[in-house]
Automatic annotation (TrEMBL):
Family: Belongs to the MoeA family.
Protein name: Molybdopterin molybdenumtransferase
Pathway: Cofactor biosynthesis; molybdopterin biosynthesis
Function: Catalyzes the insertion of molybdate into adenylated molybdopterin with the concomitant release of AMP.
Transmembrane segments: 286-307
Species name: Flavivirga jejuensis
EC number(s) reported in the record: 2.10.1.1
Amino acid sequence: MITIDEALNALKNNNIKPLFKETIKPLERCGGYYLSKDVIAPVNMPPFSQSAMDGYALSLHDDLSYALIGEVKAGDHHQPILKLGESVRIFTGAPVPETANAVMMQEKVVVAGSKITIEHNLSEGHNIRPMGEQVKTGDLALKKGTKLTPAAIGYLTSLGITEASVYSKPSIALITTGNELIEAGQPLSYGKIYESNSKMLLNALYNLKFYDVTIHKIEDDYIQTKNKLETVILENDLVIATGGISVGDYDFVGKALKELQVEEVFYKVKQKPGKPLFFGKKEDTAIFALPGNPAAALTCFYMYVYVALQKMMNHKQVELPRIQVKSISNFIKKGDRPQFLKAIYNNDTVEILEGQSSSMLQTFALSNALVFIPEDVSKIEKDDLVEVILLPNT
């Protein structure tokens, strides 16, 4: 059995290598991906001089009065020719005529038939977005390694780009084991429970923008377990099994991994919940076997699988953020193992919840954080400073 720090160091120190496989995806499906190549602007943005607001485009002269000779709306492609002292009505986003050199907002203009009077003189370029203000044709639009957020996708789309070269995300297989497990929606007969780990972990992955996920459900059968593990290890970058990793007569995952010659990096971590945690490698595939108890499985996912995923994506920050805040709860720890407690973080304080059993998801459903109690701490009292691990987007 190893410590939490030893397990995290084993994950961080080159046992998980970044994935540098590239793929081209439609831009609307690139959310959360990282660019694998620089993107060069194919057009100017904006592609022409634009009015920044509703108002009047002016060919500046020394007087405050201007002749009104026409109108330009957004989408118009005609080019009125303005002489000195002439103006056109213009709207936000409309092309500013080349012969105009400023725009006065409509609130500062008095209109009298075909004549307008502006409130004060303007400098050239006032309220005009110049062509190429954001980026010019041939310039770097976004550099390699940029995360494609909704704003980034909108920006690239505004340049007429429809697809991007991005780093592939890992393909992931989720395996659940257990004769007692049945699908939600089926009648619940005596001795059976509804299987929840697959949907829980699937949505934890979706929440982190990992969508290439398959789910596989197997019974407590050694041959079936070994064959399924062999297949998914060959076909995926990451395999996550839940259940079957302890030492019971019907826990076959560990035995199957050993027969398949999966390299054991570590097995069993001195922590609560989630002691029977396995991590191994076979060639370039990372394999986790998590405890079957749902709260323990989810804790191990956030503490260890999360790190592996960030390493695969070549991120520098691979662990969830940790902060020190005051507890508003009392808690007495049983045993000598370090413990992760389900908690609610709010306004620089944290509340430790009731129901810390490794099988209980009810309190995890309310949590947005985990409180970490080290091995040498036996209790927490109100107003004690504690270490809080912030969960992602919960």
